[in-house]
Specification:
This protein has 91 residues and is an alpha+beta fold. It is built from 3 helices and 4 strands. Bound molecules: FE2/S2 (inorganic) cluster.
């Protein structure tokens, strides 16, 4: 699990993880194609809406459990810290 203390609303969770040099499983460069960058952002912070790419790659069960694609998920608040559980390559 990783914690990002500096949150920039214009950066998705993938970019935040990359600033910490964390391997998230991005194989498509953040275009919503590979579905390999599964994460769970803990604590229910305000995040962007679930995208069509996430609905294609994630099951309803995963979505209900709070799993997101890091490249599709943006924080909506810069005053928060992100705590992120990473499942590289969909594991
Ligand atoms: S990096 Fe490929 S879907 Fe997010």
């Amino acid at each position: 699990m990783a914690t990002v203390d500096f949150v920039e609303p214009n950066l998705n969770v993938l970019a935040h993880a990359q600033t910490l040099e964390l391997e998230v499983g991005s194989r498509c460069g953040g275009h919503g194609i590979c579905g390999g960058d599964r994460v769970r952002v803990l604590g229910e912070p305000p995040l962007s809406e679930i995208t069509e790419a996430e609905r294609r790659h994630l099951s309803k069960k995963e979505l209900a459990a709070g799993i997101r694609l890091a490249c599709q998920c943006f924080p909506n608040d810069s005053t928060i810290s992100l705590r992120v559980e990473i499942f590289p390559d969909g594991q």
